[in-house]
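Question (not urgent): is this output format expected?
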Amino acid sequence: MTAILARLAYASAPASACVAGGSASGGVRTVLRLEGAAAFATAIALYGGAGFSWLAFTVLFLAPDVSMLAYLAGPRVGAVAYNLVHTYVLALLLALAGFAFGLPVASTLALILIAHIGFDRMLGYGLKYASGFGDTHLSRIGRA
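Got this back:
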């Protein structure tokens, strides 16, 4: 199971496995960033339409970034932890459970997480490779 999660999290793949040094480039990168913007806008609209607390949204919006603390245990552990929190899989399963079973807390958290992930992707912060925090599927971030 751990191997499956690591592969899902891109952490086991070398950065050289993709185009442009491990990152999407050109029009593909633009489409992925637009997709992030669409997810962000949709999550915000659904959140507001559901009448959830904007105070909770404000307080919890950056909470997924706490997963970056896993980088203290090394880049591989950090990448896996960061990617597990920053994939739409967890967020969409939480949203499904929240709406299917009438759990407003789950729905609230899911929409905040979707908004956070979309915002990150819109800004170019992608899923991480085990080679380092700055190596993402969208672009190289930080100092070159």
